[in-house]
Write a structure and sequence with these properties.
The protein has 206 residues and is of the alpha+beta class. The protein has helices at residues 7-12, 59-70, 109-117, 140-144, 189-203, and strands at residues 34-36, 39-43, 47-53, 80-82, 89-94, 97-103, 122-125, 130-136, 160-165, 168-176, 179-185. The model is unreliable at 1-13 (pLDDT under 50).
Length: 206
């Protein structure tokens, strides 16, 4: 029997068409959820992140349209805010940029925000640029303060800040008294996760 010297050719000729192949999204940190005593590290993989950039000179128009669309004012500097129905969480990222976080329902989450805001602001999907980790439990501040330069005891619920953790860029959001949402660039997701895990292991007998 004749055999091709090109394995790729053999694979492609074994299917009806290229359309038989389907790409599926795969979380950067899949399978790494775990407990540290009463504390839980959860990998968030279904939440979209959409950037909303505010055009220069259009701040008042943007604020008005944003309030009409989501029932709340845009977040204040270094704070987060929920939409009225709590379907969207908005993070202040800079004077002209807001992040919208919400459950992803399709391949183009930016369209979900665009349907609300129309042409107000520059809207882009940032989901795959970030890994998302939620820490919940009574010892999370004790563990995080080993690698985070911020004073987390003076970090109230609703506060949002950009910082570095183990020399890695990160965003912290205080969701509740015992819950933080952490964002970090996907390019260093494994290193970021390992730094958090090691900090917990150094904190207690887990």
């Amino acid at each position: 029997m004749w055999k091709s010297a090109h394995p790729i050719f053999m694979i492609l000729t074994g299917v009806d068409s290229v359309a038989d192949y389907k790409l599926e999204p795969f979380p950067f940190l899949w399978g790494r959820e775990r407990y540290f005593g009463d504390n839980y590290l959860d990998i968030i993989s279904t939440q979209a992140i959409v950037s909303i950039a505010i055009p220069r000179g259009s701040e008042e128009v943007f604020s008005s349209e944003f309030t009409n669309a989501f029932g709340t004012y845009p977040p204040e500097p270094e704070h987060s805010v929920f939409s009225t129905n709590r379907d969207f969480l908005f993070l202040w990222m800079s004077p002209d940029q807001v992040f919208a976080l919400f459950e992803r329902a399709g391949l183009y989450p930016e369209l979900t925000v665009r349907e609300k805001l129309g042409d107000t602001g520059y809207i882009t999907d940032q989901t795959d640029n970030w890994c998302q980790i939620r820490l919940t439990g009574p010892d999370i501040i004790q563990a995080m303060e080993r690698i985070c330069p911020l004073d987390l005891n003076q970090f109230p619920v609703g506060k949002c800040a950009r910082t570095v953790m183990e020399h890695l860029s990160s965003v912290l959001v205080r969701e509740s008294d015992e819950s933080f949402l952490l964002l970090s660039p996907s390019s260093s997701a494994q290193s970021f996760l390992e730094a958090i895990e090691q900090s917990f292991l150094n904190t207690g007998d887990y």
